[in-house]
Amino acid sequence: MSEIAPVKRAGIWLWLPLALFVGFFVLVMVGLLRPADRDVASAFVGKPLPAFDLRASIPGRPGLKTADFADGKPRLLNVFASWCIPCIAEAPQLDALARAGVEIHGVAIRDRQEDVQRFLAQNGNPYTRIGADDLRAVQLAIGSSGVPETFVIDGKGVIRHQHIGDIRVEDIPKLLEKLREAGA
Amino acid sequence: MIAELGLAMLWLAAALALLQLAAGAFALSARGRELGGIVRPVAVVQGVLCALSFFALIVLFLRTDLSVKLVATNSHSLKPFVYKLAGTWGNHEGSMLLWVTVMGLAGSFVALFERRLREATMLATLAGQAFVSIGFYAFLLFSSNPFERLPEPAAEGNGLNPLLQDIGLAFHPPTLYLGYVGLSVAFSFAIGALITRDVGPAFARAMRPWVLGAWIFLSLGITAGSYWAYYELGWGGWWFWDPVENASLMPWLAATALLHSASVLAARNALRAWTVMLGVVAFSMSMIGTFLVRSGILTSVHAFAVDPERGSFILALLAIYIGGALALFATRASTITEGARFAPVSRESALVVNNVALSAILGIVLVGTLYPLLTEAFDEKVSVGPPYFNPMGAIFFVPMLVVMAIGPMLRWRGDRAARVSGKLAIPALAAAATALGLVALAPTIKPMPFLGIALAVGLAVASVLPLVGRELKRTPLPTWGMVVAHFGIAVALFGVGSDSAFSTEKLVASRVGETHAVGPWQVTLSDIEPVAGPNWTAIEATMAASHAGGAASELHSQSRNFTSPPLVTSESALLTRWNGQLYAVLGEEADDQRWQLRLWWKPFVPMIWYGGLLIGLGGLLALIGRVAHDVRRLRAEGKIAYRRQRQGR
Amino acid sequence: MTAAIKPKHQRLVLLGIALVALIGAGLLAAWALRNQAAYFYLPKDIVAEPPAPGRAVRLGGMVETGSLKTAPDGVTIDFIVGDDKARVPVRFRGITPDLFVEGSGVVAEGRMQGGTFVADNLLAKHDENYVPREMAEMTAAQAKATVAETR
């Protein structure tokens, strides 16, 4: 090849792929960050719990109704199921919260009594009350679309915070903080 | 114990990758030259350790060790052996581990056998490979550890999604992964060549087998995925332009372009900057595809099934690798000297047209796939489907097909149109005769299938022309590969055209004993009864199909209920004949003991997948030819070195 | 000019051709996307501002309980998709997806024909592990409806 001098005018075009990629990156970042802004849950925070009255899921614990939340004490409402693996993963964290004096009510989604009993026997039972939600009616009514999810409910029965997915060790301080806020 | 051992080996492999990157980078500078010696051995050991770590995960899955979170979440003790095995990579963590494993082994292979490139370029390539691996190691170790234990072992696993309990799908994702990873090797070669400004035929020849290998796996993976969607979804379609499908198609398009431009670079030392660019783009498409599927940004999965952290992590990797590579390209490409020249009518020009068309199709698919994301930023939700992709793709696909018929006949450097026009008259006549036949026999045919079938016949004839007048035994394997792959495109295109032009469909509610006509077939619903499998129960319809009074064949279609987790799937029944496929799906019980049946007669539809297999076979022939050539050369070089050594004594 | 292009120009010509083709593809794509993308509608949107007849759109909402009727042919179904504000009659000919039941969410692909939404395809992937993205937003309305029905 005779010529070695680069084609100068082409130089600027060589940045075009990078520019296109940056465009792609920005677009995707916007998309990735958006679902967090319009979390399904956010619409329900600040709203009172809907009226419900669930039968007891297992013999040892009473069922759950809206009035159980209206005694002035903030507590957690945990949506779980025996068939859900992340629920096993969060069980130690729920136990830790219960030992710290937090009252936790459970809602078992589409579950059988014997399965729930087996699940609690294996993973511990942090719940004071457990309601059976066979039709997922309560779950959907409080804006939860999966298991596990955990809600902070204040003493008047108003939803103060929604935690989607399993509770990890690092989530505990935030939940305690939210409970304190709800109690104030 | 096995889990801990696997994790330890993964950490060790990650540390070695770091060493490989540091040593390789340092060896490129004047002072650290002696460090270069350790790069190759480190690369080999890194790959082996990673493979052992993956093997540990396989063992955990085969034993159904429910104290491991990943196993408990994705497996079940009742699951058949092969699905336990497939469960290893049928999830996010396992598939990422498979990814780094294949990448590590590929790195080992390059380190052991690649001797064509200058040592500096080689070191830069291996350092690049380590650089890419480190990101994935970090991803695995910090955000998706496959060996994580549960505080308490689970009583029973969560099962694999029954939709994925399918032999085709169990091996489909790893096939695509092998393709993606092959392109990562091409990417590393491109980075290495850019760093040392050493873009030439040697680079193209070193990269080509990896691109070919990746391309074979992608071709087969897409073919298998399409067939899976065809019989498992029960919609009678074979391609839905779903984001997940597009995520596999885009790397294939880029790899196809890269394959062709690399052959120009290898043979003629032209298209240098462009080939390097495509090397970067092809791997970018693999990463973008993985990102789109894994992050759930397009496919919409439930909030806790999609970890935003995961999406962000892949996106960060994407930004570092691709952004970095493109910036490197922008600064270095202008110093890559221009390659050899060629005339407007030449093999090179045809391949340039092929590359431009493939890039345009790639752009169209990418834009269409990302468009819903763009509109969503403005609060408008849309979906983009066949009405966009089909005509837009065809605009560039049709001219590409024409050039595909002509290109292989042209000579390198420059040629005269008159020399080849005589030979090309045969396929042109074949296409014209097919067109006339179609107009006469099926006057109502739509324009797109019409064009597709006519072009398919023309291309099928044209694709074998490069063999005419050659001594077949002495024709090089890569030439055979090209002929077979191009013929495969024609076969697949014929199947596509025939399916969309001549398929007939029947949707009925049928009592047992009733007969329905679909196409040339008479289908009788002979029985409905419950059946049971290892972890499902089903309603099975037995049908008897006969063709023009011939003997009846039996078909079984099922509607399956899986127990863990609860899910219903439909198993379609297929009856394959040389001239097409009869496709039957059982629906629900309508009322008064009538059952919904959906029947299709799809003439020549299997040719779509036969074509896909031929494309893969073509790639394989070319790969065997290239590798055999490389092995012969390596041996010869070894002998020469040996002789020199002896003479030196 | 001879057949062989001047060396200095070849790269520019190639670059030019590639750019023209890619920009052309981009413009074509932009034009086609504006015309061919299927927009997503909630029942209230479709009532307030119906799409042009025959234009492919997607409709997402809840299958109203008690509205599902099968025609005498056994394969055509009529049902009503609603949200908290509006109700749209939908007709579908074919085999319904396995998760399609009254009271659950559905996304229908099809077009409006004289007040009825004629669906070519129904997507009803709504279980514990999967909520179509568009559906996630209407969980509020959906939840209300579900509670109203189950009470």
Give an overview of the whole structure:
The complex is a heterotrimer of chains A (184), B (649) and C (151). By secondary structure, chain A is α/β, with parallel strands linked by helices. Chain A has helices at 10-13, 16-37, 85-99, 113-123, 137-141, 172-183, and strands at residues 53-54, 64-65, 75-80, 104-109, 127-133, 149-153, 159-164. Chain A has one domain: Glutaredoxin, CATH 3.40.30.10. In chain A, 38% of the residues lie in helices and 18% in strands. Residues 1-8 and 36-42 of chain A have low confidence and may be disordered. Chain B is an alpha+beta fold and 649 residues long. Chain B is built from 17 helices and ten strands. In chain B, the strands form two sheets. Chain B has a five-stranded antiparallel β-sheet, with no helix packed on it. A four-stranded antiparallel β-sheet of chain B has the order 2-10-9-8, with helices on one face. In chain B, 53% of the residues are buried. The model of chain B is unreliable at 300-306 (pLDDT under 50). Helices cover 35% and strands 29% of the residues of chain C. Chain C is elongated. Classes of the chains: A alpha/beta (184), B alpha+beta (649), C alpha+beta (151). Chains B and C meet through helix 12, strand 1, helix 13, strand 2 and strand 7 of B and helix 1, strand 1 and helix 3 of C. Strand 1 of chain B pairs antiparallel with strand 1 (38-41) of chain C, so a sheet runs across the interface.
